Structures are given as C-alpha cells and as structure tokens.
Amino acid sequence: MTMKDVLDELSATRRKMGTATLPAGEAYTMELRRRYDAHVDDVWDAITSPERLSRWMKPVTGDLRLGGTFQLDGGEHGEILRCEPPRLLRVSWMFGPGADEWPGTSEVEVRLSPGSAGDTEFELVHAAAVGEPMFPTYGPGAGGVGWDLHLLTLTSFLSDGEVLDHEKFGTSPAGREFSRRSAAAWGEAHLAAGGTPTDVAAAVKATTAFYAPTEDAQ
C-alpha cells in the first residue's frame, strides 16, 4: 500500500467523539463514518459471515445469532444484542483482564445505509463507559486507531479480496504514518468534543507511542 493510499484512506473516514448511555452508565463514543464502493448486502456479509470476517478482521467463533455470543481470536468477546440484516448490528464488546466483571461497559454498533449508486454508507459507533481505564491516558485514540486500521483492511478486502497483514503494515513506513495521522485525527475529534488542549496533546502522544513507537522504544 502506497503512502497516497494511506492518506486517501485517512481522509475518507469522518471521525467524531460523542456521548451515549450504556447499561453501566455514562459513556463516550468513537464514531467512524465512510463510504464503501460495494453493495450493502456485500458489506453486511463481510461483517457477519464468519469466513469473511476472519479474513479481514480476526477469526471468530461462537453462537453467532441474536442473543448468542462471539469470541474473536485476540480476546475480544461479547453478546449479539441486535441484528437487523442488512442494516444494523450491535454487540457488547469486552476485552482485557477482568473485563467480564464490568458488564454493560462497552458496545459496538455498525449501521449500513445503501447508496443511490450501489455503494454503502458505513457507520461504526463504539461506546465505552467513562470510567474505563484506557481513556485517561489515550483518549478516543485508544480504540479509534485500531478501528481505523480494521476499516483500512476492510477497504482492501471489499475492493479486491486482498487482506492487509496488520503486523507487516504496522511496521512499514506507510503503516507507521497511518497510525501517527490516525492518532492526530482522533486528537482533533477529542478537542472538538471539549477536551482540553493539554489533555488532548498528552493523549495523542501516548496513542502515537503505542501504535507507532520510535525505534529506541521498540
């Protein structure tokens, strides 16, 4: 993937930080919206078919139906809360040691809208409880950069069936620049949502160091 491709993908996604209410209480949201040049049924299948989801995101197992549970090969897991093909999917999203002790603290919802030209408007909203431990350090970039990377992979998968190797891409010059610019973009969303310049700058710095550490830090 060329540097131009990376910059084009970054500009194709609109990012916003907002608020929501979860079963566990007040939450902040990481919201990503973009267009895919693919039919809504194809995009829906790519995000719900275990075989296709495993190719661009991570291998998935579980009872994949409304009310069932899922597990990704990476630790993320949860319950399927809403499933309305081919428009809406909502799941609880738990990750990390002890996450199951705080149910209702994290949810991901994907909304698809068919376009007039056979394309699809894609919106992903990840709501996380205000008290979750990552936000004070990383801000919305904690999950936002990761979702940017996954949507970049989905773009490649939908366009030509190719799967981006996250590990190789992440250490490439283009991948490191993508992560740096994604972290900065989430900093802009954080600032627009009312974050103080000092807090935002610290969060962007921490997020950048996590996703694109300097050679000395690796």
Automatic annotation (TrEMBL):
In the record, the note on similarity to other proteins reads: Belongs to the AHA1 family.
Q: Which source organism?
A: Paractinoplanes aksuensis
The name this protein goes by in its record: SRPBCC family protein
Signal peptide residue numbers: none
Q: Domain named Activator of Hsp90 ATPase homologue 1/2-like C-terminal: which ranges?
A: 37-151
Q: Name one Pfam family in it.
A: AHSA1
Give the matching Gene3D superfamilies.
Answer: 3.30.530.20
Top-level taxon of origin: Bacteria
InterPro entries linked: ASHA1/2-like_C (IPR013538), START-like_dom_sf (IPR023393)
